[in-house]
Amino acid sequence: MRKAVRFSVVLVILAFMAGCASMGATNTTQTNTAVTSFEAVGTTLTTLFNQEAAMVKANQITAAQDAQFQAMYTQAYNGYQALGSAMQTAITATGTSQTNAQAQVTTLMAQLPVLVANVSNFILGLVPAKTQ
Amino acid sequence: MDPATIVLIEAGITALEQLAPALVNLIAQGGLDPDTAASYTQRIQTAMANLPKPSGT
Fold it and tell me: Cβ–Cβ of B51/A77 closer than 8 Å?
């Protein structure tokens, strides 16, 4: 698990550095920044999901806590999928469709950080209580 | 909490901060060549597919 987490960290940091390096350049690299950041958020959510699953397997959390996590994760999952769909439309569509996608992306992008923070805060709050 | 996990979470939050302004540019631009657009949409689809599904779904 630790090796897997560290490997994931390396991947995210490399992806993030690539995204930073492309900021302020051409339109194509701006889009690359958006896609790279989107991938990094997915990696973070995946690691949080896997960590919680390991805790469930080790009986380190209660069924109620697991249910609470799954509810939060489901919201983040759905938000991530919706944002990904809207991003694809924004990349490929033109005219009115792209304008509509802009409204969707704006709305979803305002929601996703809160949903991801809920998941990460839950995990961050759980683990110290179990390791004391 | 494994310090590496905390670093990962922080990286994810930072990525979210990067995502918002990058998406604004993405929306505003349009006109990506078809191959580039296809490459990006494929990466997005892969990221969406790789995200673990919630339990019970």
Answer: yes
